[in-house]
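Collaborator request, handled under Task 6.
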Amino acid sequence: MFYRPICLLLLLSASVYAAEPKQAIVESLKQLADRNPQVRDKAGNELMALDQTDLPLLRQVIAKSPQLKVSQIAALYDIVCYLHVRSAMLKLPKMPNGFLGVSLPSTALTDTRNEPAGFAIVSRLNGFVGFRKLQDGDVITAVGLGDDLQPVSTPAQFQTIIRSYAAGQRISLRVMRGIVPMTIQLNLDAAPQLNDAGAPISDIILDAEIDAEKYWETNFTPLIATKEI
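Structure tokens returned to the collaborator:
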């Protein structure tokens, strides 16, 4: 005799859990238009934390939203493509060591005393955590676990440290973004396992980006065309 209240409770609980992610997407979508670049960056990062399976929900939120600014549309394109490419990257064979997914220079920066002053990220690989959490031009000065950060003077030293961590391990990076110092925490991806005869990771990402572009054009472009200011 108690099955009806129990079933009703389960249905209400499911609807609450379904509503919470949707509301978070609504708020992040609004923040993509914020005047503060740090607020916009945070919102984009939160949306990139979604899964590819959440893209239909994102599309629903966009459909019910008012007009979108150009900055929101540009950010949404990057977010949708990232999620689509990331899904493809997660299907690749994996190695046990950690992977950030960024390209680094061959030499470090120096300060006014000609001392090592970190190094700037040259570019990021779409679909990996470095693409989501970092920006081109970010200057990395230290890396570690939690609050125990070790200064890094060369890109080679940094790469060796990253490879010593396990996939999924949570690390901290001390970064200068422009003139703003910040500490960024992230969970390392697993390094993709590619054989010598296979395509390089850049080609695999390019193929995934082409598929992502098609997905955007089919599923988002017609919808956003009705929302653009």
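The cover message to the collaborator said: "The helical segments are 3-31, 37-48, 55-64, 70-89, 129-133, 155-164, 201-219, 221-224. Residues 3-31 form the longest helix (29 residues). Please let us know whether this matches your experimental observations."
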